[in-house]
Specification:
By secondary structure, the chain is α/β, with parallel strands linked by helices. Helices cover 33% and strands 20% of the residues. It contains 17 helices and 21 strands. The strands form 7 sheets. Strands 11-6-1-2-3-12 form a 6-stranded mixed β-sheet, with helices on both faces. It has a 5-stranded mixed β-sheet with strand order 18-17-21-19-20. Strands 4-5 form a two-stranded antiparallel ribbon. The radius of gyration is 23 Å and the shape is globular.
């Protein structure tokens, strides 16, 4: 079985169907772009401190035509208007498209050649001065009907392709909104795309950002990131690398989860810095944002939000979370399968104005990436999560000796799974189980001290049935994996 999530972008495949379109897309992605959607929310809140300034009004008037989404009638037809002062949802995305790729023969200018690298669903409550950011995994498997089952990040490409084929009232942006709205079960009122070419300039304009990085981020091969753990000031280049460095977390598991947490942390850090800046710095920042954001929001919308968000407290009123998923290997590709029950629970909380997580323990990135999140209970009480939670994870530990036993009778199955686990940092061996009658795979930790290792094995294989050893495998390994027919069918 191929590597789960840590394969190189050049070797990744994507979907079930649309073979011709996917072949064209796959070719366009060979030199994977460096776009991550994250900063868009700055354009909504980044002007908070520019209130009542004549210079600010002149600036906003100058950039009033810079956002570039007014002509997308398909997008505007998909968005749901929210009443003034009411909470609303906004989709924030990053597309792996830039001027270099648009001019290249590998990619071209057609929007259908590009996908969404990062997806953020933001709930904005102007009355309560509260913001919630929920990352949606770009590899989430969804059903696009006649376009087949594909990763959710292909919505932009599908919509753009439909538009290019002459279909009316559809675009990459509109179909992305439609897809996310259906997936999350909420109406979407606003939309924005981010151009990360300007990201470094944004951070440098405000003099860098203060972050507390839980663990060392070292990714020399892909992003060049080399950021030490601890409280520090990052410049634009470092901040961008932090938001891109998913391979720095290979030993912990799914790098997309950890970099998404870092993206949300960077948003908060930028917002905090902007709110504390002088008017001249804010003006420069807004100018840069205008060059890097495409959104349906008008200048009037932005100024209205800025006014309503006076007194916004990032520490207690900015919540964040990640769509709960499980990994699964299907047709030579790793997908993220949404944990529907947990997702519905999360979105119910978000809709109620509560934090996505009921407690910090639900945040799988805590202590590894990001800064945690404030929590809010149904009784209205809130407590900020500590940002210095250290580098240990009580959830998973990608190390130890794992014995993989073939209980399904499929030739070579144990060896393939053992190889996959070895690629993730485990010391593995493959052998035959006591029978080939196992219907479901069992992951068994031998001794309480090895439970975190078993959880990491389960995470790698996209499984959840972790149990304690009853004495059967004492002394044989830290973790025993008995493969069943369920893995043979994957």
């Amino acid at each position: 079985m191929p590597k789960r999530r840590n394969e190189t972008p050049q070797n990744r495949t994507s979907d079930y169907s649309r073979a011709e379109a996917m072949e064209r897309y796959s070719g366009a992605r060979r030199k994977r772009g460096r776009r991550k959607g994250l900063k868009v929310f700055l354009i909504v809140l980044g002007v908070v401190a520019v209130l009542a300034s004549t210079a600010a009004w002149a600036l906003m008037t100058r950039i009033s035509g810079s956002f570039g989404m007014a002509s997308d009638s398909a997008l505007h037809g998909t968005l749901t208007e929210a009443s003034s002062g009411d909470p609303f949802y906004m989709v924030l995305i990053g597309i792996d498209k830039d001027e270099y790729r648009s001019d290249s023969s590998e990619y071209g200018s057609a929007e259908s050649a590009y996908r969404t690298d990062s997806i953020l669903l933001a709930r904005v409550d102007p009355t309560e001065k509260q913001v919630t950011l929920v990352s949606i995994h770009r590899d989430t498997l969804v059903d696009f009907g006649t376009y087949g089952k594909q990763k959710i990040n292909s919505a932009y490409s599908i919509g753009a392709e439909r538009k290019e084929s002459g279909e009316q009232n559809v675009s990459g942006a509109s179909y992305t909104v439609e897809t996310i709205s259906k997936f999350a079960g909420v109406p979407i009122s606003h939309y924005a795309e981010i151009d990360l070419d300007q990201f470094i300039s944004v951070v440098d304009t405000i003099g860098g950002i203060e972050v507390n990085v839980p663990v060392d981020v070292y990714d020399p091969q892909y992003t060049g990131a080399d950021i030490k753990a601890g409280q520090q000031t990052l410049n634009g280049d470092q901040a961008l690398k932090l938001c891109r460095a998913r391979h720095a977390y290979d030993k912990y598991g799914d790098g997309d989860v950890y970099r998404a947490a870092n993206q949300r942390m960077v948003i908060g850090a930028i917002l905090r810095k902007i709110l504390a800046s002088d008017p001249a710095t804010i003006a420069s920042t807004v100018t840069t944002l205008a060059d890097s954001v495409s959104t349906d929001l008008s200048v009037a919308d932005i100024l209205s939000l800025a006014t309503q968000f006076q007194g916004f407290n990032i520490d207690t009123d900015m919540f964040s979370g990640m769509e709960p998923t499980n990994s699964k290997y299907v047709n030579d590709t790793w997908y993220e399968i949404c944990d529907t029950r947990a997702w519905q629970k999360m979105m119910t909380r978000v809709n109620q104005g509560l934090s996505p997580y009921e407690s910090e323990d639900e945040d799988t990135a805590l202590g590894i990436a990001g800064a945690g999140t404030a929590t809010k209970n149904s009784d209205g009480s809130a407590a900020a999560s500590p940002s210095d939670s250290g580098g240990e994870s009580a959830e998973t530990e990608y190390s130890g000796y794992v014995k993989v036993l073939n209980g399904a009778g499929v030739s070579g199955l144990a060896g393939r799974v053992a190889s996959t686990l070895s690629n993730h940092g485990f010391d593995t061996t493959a052998a035959t189980a006591d029978s080939f009658d196992y219907s479901s795979t069992r992951i068994i930790y031998v001794g309480d001290g090895n439970r975190a290792k078993a959880e990491a094995v389960a995470d790698t294989l996209g499984l959840s049935n972790v149990v304690a050893d009853d004495g059967t495998y004492a002394g044989e390994a830290d973790v025993i994996v008995v493969l069943g027919a369920d893995m043979a069918n994957n």
